[in-house]
Amino acid sequence: MLDVDGRQAVRRGRQTIQALEDRAAEAWLPVVEGLTPHDLKHSHKVWMDEDLIPDVAQAKRLAHSIASIKGRATHISDRYSHVSEPMRQQLVAVLQKRWEGSLRRRAKTGPSRLPILQELLRPYLRPWVVSSQIPPIGGAEIIEMRNDQAV
After folding, report:
1. pTM metric for this prediction
2. How far apart are CA 107 and CA 115, in angstroms?
3. Nearest-angstrom CA–CA distance, 81 and 33
4. How far, in Å, CA of 83 to CA of 137, rounded?
5. What is the mean pLDDT of the chain?
6. Is there a domain that residue 9 lies in?
7. According to the 3-state scheme, what is the secondary structure of 35-70?
8. Is residue 67 domain-resident?
9. Exposure string (b/e) for 54-65, b if CB count within 10 Å is 16 or more?
10. What is the Cα–Cα distance from 51 to 130, expressed in whole angstroms?
11. Cβ distance 113 to 25 under 8 Å?
């Protein structure tokens, strides 16, 4: 059996296996197999285009020159353009809006077992209660789950 870091784990009873399963459930899995940080820069560039961020601010954000983004060998604005404070504020505002939107969409699936993600989701979680359509059997107690408890 391998642990979540890919190392060999020694089986020492059910408790060890459960601990490994708990760690695996809390691990960050890739969104798409083979996706690299460089691939994410492409998506980031498209978002900035959609949000009408000026090319000079995009180039600065992506650590590129405007010429490399535009596909030209040289461009006069590489020398004379610079990122202004209003451009920075616009970029921060649109990225913040996208970030909050992603948290809002994730919160619709319920709480997270990852403490850091749960803390980020907390402002976006709506009150909810898990209930079963199956009646309790043999004196079992119904336990109410609220959105502030990790499942």
Report:
1. 0.57
2. 14
3. 38
4. 66
5. 74
6. yes
7. CCHHHHHHHHHHHHHHCCCCHHHHHHHHCCCHHHHH
8. no
9. bbbbbbbbeeeb
10. 38
11. yes
- Which token pair is 105? 């969409």
Note down the domain range covering 15: 1-30
Q: Residue 4 gets which letter from DSSP?
A: T
Tokens of 147: 């959105």
Integer Cα distance of 62 and 45 in angstroms: 8
Q: Which letter does DSSP use for residue 34 in this model?
A: T
Summarised one tens digit per residue, pLDDT across range 60-85 is 999 887 665 555 544 555 567 889 99
CB 56 within 8 A of CB 77: yes
**Contact status, residue 66 vs residue 78, Cβ threshold 8 Å:** yes
Q: Does 5 map to a domain?
A: yes
Between CA 123 and CA 104 the distance in angstroms is: 9
Give a yes or no: residue 25 inside a domain.
Answer: yes
Q: Quote the number of domains for the chain.
A: 1
